Amino acid sequence: MAATIDNSNAVQATKKKHLGIPEAAFVEDVDSFMKQPGNETADSALRRLDEQYQKYKYMELNLSQKKLRLKNQIPQITQTLEILRHMQKKKANVMLEYDIDEAQALLEKNLSTASRNLETLVDDLDFLRDQFTTVEVNMARVYNWDVKRRSKENLLKSADKS
């Protein structure tokens, strides 16, 4: 029983972890996939899969930009913290918007948050790459299914003409 609970908690944690990024369903059975509404033709199914792929590309672009901002922000916060610590050691008497201890606490909190957000973004980008792969494989499977279907149709037409 504990394994089931742990497993369900892990699944919930994964869903929360990648909140906002829909998981791409793998098309196991292309025949049943093509019978679903909206998949009347291979072209329409491929178009829908391509739309999904483009949405993932857009998400990747946004996440990559956020990652870049965080990668730039973390060294800046670290440098500011180092300056602040240097000021504390030298007993600098400088007018600041915050008192030095408050500023240090705030900067440490911001650094911790930025580092956590960067880790989350890296995980989200990895998850997103998995979704790319799944959609690409789905597109290939639908395309191959259509090639086989047309090949069978052409064979049947050739047999009928003979």
Topology overview:
Elements: H1 2-17, H2 30-34, H3 42-89, H4 100-161
Helix pairs in contact: 3-4
Please give a quick description of this structure.
With 162 residues, this protein is mainly alpha-helical.
Please estimate the helix content: over 70%
- Low-confidence runs: 1-8
Within the CATH hierarchy, at the fold level, what is the topology? Helix Hairpins
Mean pLDDT, all residues: 87
CATH class, please?
A: Mainly Alpha
Total helical elements: 4
- Kindly report how far apart the N and C termini lie: 65 Å
Question: Strand tally, please?
Answer: 0
Subunit structure: Heterohexamer of two PFD-alpha type and four PFD-beta type subunits.
Organism: Seriola lalandi dorsalis
Pfam family, one: Prefoldin
GO molecular function: tubulin binding
Structure write-up:
By secondary structure, the protein is mostly helical. The chain has a single domain, classed as Orthogonal Bundle (Helix Hairpins). Helix content is 81%, strand content 0%. It is built from four helices and no strands. Helix 3 packs antiparallel against helix 4. The termini are far apart. The N terminus is likely disordered.
